[in-house]
């Protein structure tokens, strides 16, 4: 019998760290978001705004230059680092790794991302790991070639069932216990923290296992996974991976449930960005 823990308000209260009253800009986390393409311009923007909502101090958003003008209109809160092509290339990776003005604590890569060759993605991942950046990989970055680069790095990967099969070669199916067994084995084998997204959100680092049921079917709308990835990436600047995942899923789910109660099945992903602070503020702590 595969055992797992549930996630409730008490656990989240225990996990949440206080913000130091005298802290300065940057001390509460610096996050890099890398994503976007000619087709999927919104994904990295949702992730970046969610990272800011998590409480991280600074977010740098690396996107294709073709999306730069419209993205700047979207929000004045983001700092953009454009790469020249509409796809991630080796040249773009070299320039990106040299152009981030501050030391990055955590990075999320893959939301809406397009690349012509996997080598560019692998170079980016290698470069970030060499700079001791805590990684999250999602969406376009979830390909089997990355496994050789992230094994035993505690990288967070956030696949749904289809992406899980693409990355690991096995489809999570059957009852909850069977899914837990598979996800736990893969996490332990590769030294990763995995969020398997679905009706049952399974979170494991290969030892600990948590299950968080989806709070509302409203969360199937496109973009909510990008918000989740941004939240977790923001939390990765301050928390160990398993706790960052739990915080991201818990608050994303709470915000989604609140919106369902207000809007029914008609929420969109960007609604979450405005609801998140309302569910997070009751957990805020400040220390001397």
In short:
By secondary structure, the protein is of the alpha/beta class. The chain has helices at 9-15, 43-53, 68-74, 90-99, 118-130, 147-150, 161-168, 176-190, 224-236, 241-263, 269-280; strands spanning 19-20, 30-34, 58-64, 79-83, 106-109, 134-137, 156-157, 193-196, 200-204, 209-213, 286-287. The protein has one domain (9-14, 24-287): 3-Layer(aba) Sandwich (UDP-N-acetylmuramoyl-L-alanine:D-glutamate ligase), CATH 3.40.1190.
Describe the structure.
The protein is 43% helix and 16% strand. It is α/β, with parallel strands linked by helices and 288 residues long. It has a single domain (9-14, 24-287), classed as 3-Layer(aba) Sandwich (UDP-N-acetylmuramoyl-L-alanine:D-glutamate ligase). The strands form 2 sheets. A 9-stranded mixed sheet has the order 4-3-2-5-6-7-8-9-10, sandwiched between helices. Strands 1-11 form a two-stranded parallel ribbon. α3 links the parallel β3 and β4. α2 packs across α9 (224-236) and α10 (241-263) crosses α11 (269-280). The mean pLDDT is 94.
Question: Any key phrases for this structure?
Answer:
alpha/beta, 11 strands, two-stranded parallel sheet, about 15% strand
Assembly context of the chains: single chain
Q: Identify the CATH architecture.
A: 3-Layer(aba) Sandwich
Widest sheet: strand order?
4-3-2-5-6-7-8-9-10
Structural class: alpha/beta
As a whole number of angstroms, the C-alpha radius of gyration is: 18 Å
- As a percent range, the share of helical residues equals 40-55%
Broad CATH class = Alpha Beta
The SSE string, one letter per element, is: HEEHEHEHEHEHEHHEEEHHHE
Strand content: 15-25%
Biggest beta-sheet profile: 9 strands, mixed
Q: Quick one: overall form?
A: globular
Low-confidence stretches: none
Mean pLDDT, all residues? 94
The end-to-end span amounts to 45 Å
CATH homologous superfamily heading: Ribokinase
Could you tell me the number of beta strands?
A: 11
């Amino acid at each position: 019998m595969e055992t797992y823990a549930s996630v409730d308000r008490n656990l989240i209260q225990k996990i949440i760290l206080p913000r130091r009253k005298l802290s300065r800009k940057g001390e509460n986390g610096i996050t890099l978001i890398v994503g976007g393409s000619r087709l999927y311009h919104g994904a990295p923007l949702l992730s970046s705004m969610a990272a800011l909502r998590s409480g991280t101090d600074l977010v740098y958003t690396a996107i294709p230059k073709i999306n730069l003008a419209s993205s700047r209109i979207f929000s004045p809160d983001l700092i953009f680092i454009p790469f020249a092509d509409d796809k991630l290339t080796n040249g773009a990776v070299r320039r990106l790794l040299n152009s981030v003005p501050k030391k990055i604590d955590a990075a999320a890569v893959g939301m809406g991302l397009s690349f012509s060759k996997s080598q560019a993605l692998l170079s980016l991942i290698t470069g970030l790991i060499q700079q001791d950046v805590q990684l999250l990989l999602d969406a376009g970055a979830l390909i089997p070639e990355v496994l050789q680069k992230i094994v035993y790095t505690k990288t967070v990967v956030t696949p749904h069932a289809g992406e899980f099969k693409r990355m690991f070669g096995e489809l999570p199916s059957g009852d909850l216990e069977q899914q837990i067994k598979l996800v736990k084995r893969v996490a332990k084998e590769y030294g990763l923290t995995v969020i398997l997204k679905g009706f049952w959100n399974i979170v494991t680092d290969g030892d600990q296992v948590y299950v968080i049921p989806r709070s509302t079917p409203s969360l199937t709308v496109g973009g909510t996974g990008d918000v989740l990835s941004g939240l977790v990436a923001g939390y990765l600047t301050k928390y160990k991976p398993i706790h960052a995942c739990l915080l991201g899923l818990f608050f994303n789910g709470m915000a989604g449930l609140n919106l369902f109660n207000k809007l029914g099945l008609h929420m969109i992903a960007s609604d979450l960005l405005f609801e998140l602070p309302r569910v997070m503020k009751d957990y805020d702590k400040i220390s001397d």
